[in-house]
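In response to reviewer comment 3 from the previous cycle, which asked for concrete evidence that the modeling workflow produces usable outputs, we include below a single protein chain processed end to end. The sequence was submitted unchanged, and the resulting structure tokens are shown without manual editing.
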Amino acid sequence: MVTGTMNVDWTTWEPKERATLLFVIKDGQILLIRKKRGLGAGKINGPGGRLEPGETPEEAAVRETIEELRITPLSPEWRGRLHFQFLDGYSLTCSVFVSPDYRGIPMETPEALPIWTPLDAIPYDEMWADDAHWLPGVIAGGEFEGYFVFDGENMLSHDVRWLKNPPL
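The workflow returned the following structure tokens.
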């Protein structure tokens, strides 16, 4: 269901890069970051980043959270997969995890500023446009596959398919 200027055959699509996102959700709040560098610098998101050779998505999610916030997420659970195609040719798939707890104290690093946010006050207007289409369902316990086409930071199309516990 692509409606932008680029038709994507998601059945044969292959990403140039693989990455992760991880959201700690605890006591009615979600731990977000303001990203300081890289893709999406300045935006609010979850900690995450690219997989290293031989690393599983879960290992990458934990490593990136440690690097970006100096905390270790406990018992991460896979919740979904994002597929991004950009008009400039860049493509990325991203595994999404949630964690109910962590060890350590979230700290600002050269990569990220930690931001605890109430679940009912997530600043979607400061995030990537796709987040509002899948993050509420993830918070509600759902699992999904999401397909998005972007022109820079402008989302041209989206298709979110709920695999388990779709949101009400």
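The chain has one domain: 17-164. We consider this sufficient to address the reviewer's concern, and the full set will be provided in the supplementary archive.
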